[in-house]
Amino acid sequence: MLNFRQIEVFRAIMLTRTMSAAAEMLNASQPGLSRMIKHLEGRLGFLLFDRLHGRLNPTAEANALFLEVEHIHHSIENLEHVVARLGAGENLVFRLGASPSLSRGFAPELLRGLQQAHPRLIIQFDVLSVEQVSDYLIAGRSEYALTVYAIDHPNLASTQIGSTPLVAILPVGHPLLAKAPLGIGDFEGQHLISFPPDSPHGRAITQMSDRAGVSLRASTRVRFAETACAFVARGLGVSIVDAQTAADCGFAGIVAVALRDAIAMPIVLHRSRTTPRSKVSTTFERLCREIGAAAPGKPGRAKPDAAKPSPAKPSPVKPFPVKSVPANRRRR
Question: What does the DSSP assignment read for 196-241?
Answer without folding.
Answer: -TTSHHHHHHHHHHHHHT----EEEE-S-HHHHHHHHHTTS-EEEE
